[in-house]
């Protein structure tokens, strides 16, 4: 059969696939690749969380189906986190739900609230599930450029004027993946006022709430009245080095939480109960491990930014997240992010994510994930500096040579 699957046809070729294939071939040939590509924490989950998993898993009563909404203890722990961290009251029975990671939660909510042809406003560049979760659900997406060179609020106003039909929802993600951009409560207040006026739901992705290096990032739910239109997704993945455990949350607007609850009841029985119990232990337990994780990323960030500056590649120090959003070096700016990423992998043995994979407005950047230790980061810097020098890409360091 040669039948086409229309939902799949709406998805573009995976931009990261070519770099990933090159990386796999290089490793198969015995090459040592320093991998800054995927945002996959390299450190172990804190011991007290693992111990809680093992303790609960020894009880055979926990081996049965779990609760699709999340066990009550975990929902209460998440509500307590919002009260403690943001001074926001969350009803654990009607205003939050446990998801299989924030990515699954966003995709399932898209399925729950989207009618084919709906219009969704999405920042660009952005994490791929933000636009494609809705595209898979049959919606259309209007991209709003984001970054230091753009006025996002002006872009929202233009998007509402241009969008047909009027937008149903807006995606937000701060601290942002991939750009590491942060915003303050004044920004959220303006967005909430704008979306309330235009009857637009807000879906906020706050997965990097605890990976910050300055002021703690706020929650949009801190804005009075935000719960009338907004729901927010959080996760234990990066906060507690638990990416493979697949535990996330949605909190906020009761109508959106009810819609997500209803569709999840058809799709899953919830995460394995011992994993949910361990996630509750993470939220309720000592938070010194979070401080240590944050300090680790800060150290890696500083080593990377300082080292690359010495190599002639000046990138802004990210104020949050586990990523650096690096402009293409001037010598390679005309290559675009995919070709530069391939060149860096081939010549410097360093893997990064091409910015084009996060949207067309990201093509003049690459994303560098802080998932290698400082020794490996310093080695990557040496490799990059040697490569730059070989092609004359370091200012004042010899004649400029061809990049290829």
Identify the notable features of this structure and list them briefly:
404 residues; alpha/beta; Aspartate Aminotransferase, domain 1; Aspartate Aminotransferase, domain 2; seven-stranded mixed sheet; three-stranded antiparallel sheet; disordered C terminus
Description:
The chain is an alpha/beta fold. It folds into two domains: 6-44 and 288-389, Alpha-Beta Complex (Aspartate Aminotransferase, domain 1), CATH 3.90.1150.10; 61-284, 3-Layer(aba) Sandwich (Aspartate Aminotransferase, domain 2). Helix content is 41%, strand content 13%. The protein contains 13 helices and twelve strands. It has helices at residues 6-9, 16-28, 47-57, 72-86, 102-113, 129-136, 152-162, 185-197, 254-267, 273-284, 288-310, 337-348, 374-390, and strands at 34-35, 96-99, 119-124, 140-145, 169-173, 201-205, 230-235, 248-252, 323-327, 350-351, 353-354, 365-369. The chain has a seven-stranded mixed beta sheet with strand order 2-8-7-6-5-3-4, with helices on both faces. A three-stranded antiparallel beta sheet has the order 9-12-11. Helix 6 (129-136) links the parallel strand 3 (119-124) and strand 4 (140-145). It is globular and about 60 Å long. It starts with 5 loop residues before the first helix and ends in a 14-residue tail after the last helix.
């Amino acid at each position: 059969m040669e039948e086409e699957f229309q939902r799949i046809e709406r998805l573009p070729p995976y931009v990261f696939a070519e770099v990933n294939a090159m990386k796999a071939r290089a490793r198969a040939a015995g090459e040592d690749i320093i991998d800054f590509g995927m945002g996959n924490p390299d450190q172990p989950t804190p011991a007290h969380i693992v111990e809680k998993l093992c303790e609960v898993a020894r009880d055979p009563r926990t081996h049965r189906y779990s609760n699709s909404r999340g066990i009550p203890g975990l929902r209460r722990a998440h509500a307590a986190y919002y009260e403690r961290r943001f001074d926001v009251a969350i009803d654990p029975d009607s205003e939050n739900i446990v998801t299989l990671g924030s990515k699954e939660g966003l995709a399932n909510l898209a399925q729950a609230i989207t009618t084919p042809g709906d219009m969704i406003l999405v920042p660009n560049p952005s994490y791929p599930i933000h636009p494609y979760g809705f595209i898979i659900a049959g919606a259309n997406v209007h991209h709003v450029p984001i970054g230091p060179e753009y006025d996002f609020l002006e872009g929202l106003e233009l998007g509402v004027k241009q969008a047909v039909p009027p937008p149903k929802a807006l995606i937000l993600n701060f601290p942002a993946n991939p750009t590491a951009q942060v915003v303050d409560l004044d920004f959220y207040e303006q967005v909430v006022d704008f979306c309330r006026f235009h009857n637009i739901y807000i879906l906020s992705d706050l997965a990097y709430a605890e990976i910050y290096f300055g002021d703690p990032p706020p929650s949009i739910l801190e804005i009075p009245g935000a719960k009338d239109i907004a729901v927010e997704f959080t996760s234990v993945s990066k906060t507690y080095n638990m990416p493979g455990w697949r535990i996330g949350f949605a909190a906020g607007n009761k109508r959106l939480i009810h819609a997500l609850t209803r569709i999840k009841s058809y799709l899953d029985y919830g995460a394995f109960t011992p994993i949910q119990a361990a996630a509750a232990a993470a939220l309720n337990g000592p938070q010194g491990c979070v401080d240590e994780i944050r300090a680790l990323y800060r150290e890696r960030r500083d080593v990377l930014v300082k080292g690359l500056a010495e190599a002639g590649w000046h990138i802004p120090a990210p104020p949050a997240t586990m990523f650096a959003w690096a402009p293409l070096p001037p010598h390679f700016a005309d290559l675009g992010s995919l070709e530069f990423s391939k060149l860096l992998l081939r010549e410097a043995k360093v893997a990064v994510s091409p910015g084009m994979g996060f949207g067309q407005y990201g093509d003049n950047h690459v994303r560098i994930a802080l998932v290698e230790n400082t020794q490996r980061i310093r080695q990557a810097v040496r490799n990059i500096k040697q490569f730059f020098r070989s092609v004359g890409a370091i200012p004042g360091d010899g004649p400029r040579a061809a990049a290829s």
